[in-house]
Amino acid sequence: MDQTLPPCPQCSCEFTYEMGSLLVCPECAHEWAAGAVDDEGTDVIRDAVGNVLADGDTVTVIKTLKVKGSPTGIKSGTKVRNIRLVKGVGDHDIDCKVDGIGPMQLKSSVVKKA
User: Fold this and answer.
1) Angle, alpha carbons 93-82-94 (nearest 5°)
2) Which among 7, 70, 86, 104 is most buried, taking Cβ atoms within 10 Å?
């Protein structure tokens, strides 16, 4: 079997497979973008539609998110300004402050660049 796909970055499983534009690990269910490393070898964080994100960008939430302790959560279409890219808990890679909610971390897969 020709193995051209990279192993899972979280659990190093060799049995990754493609699902659309994402790579998926069958053991830990981690999903990541196939081209998630740029030419210099550093990680590139992309939004839900494939745009490269950078510190200070403004993004829009593309789906309604439930937030513990908040009766409303974050509604789809909410703009989040001045994001910071981090290596957060799990797949959370955006550190930001959401108006009306406060500081939190978001996944890049639920936002698009504004």
Assistant:
1) 5
2) 104
CATH number of 1-40: 2.20.25.10
Tokens of 81: 């300004």
Q: Which residue, 107, 101, 111, is CA-closest to 86?
A: 107
pLDDT for the residue 84:
94
b/e burial code for range 45-73 (CB count within 10 A of at least 16 → b): bbbbeebebeeebebebbeebeeeeeeee
Domain ranges within the chain, ordered by starting residue: 1-40, 58-113
Q: Are 5 and 16 in contact (CB under 8 A)?
A: yes
How confident is the model over 58-75, as pLDDT tens digits?
999 999 999 988 888 999
CA distance 48 to 88: 17
pTM higher than the cut 0.70 = no
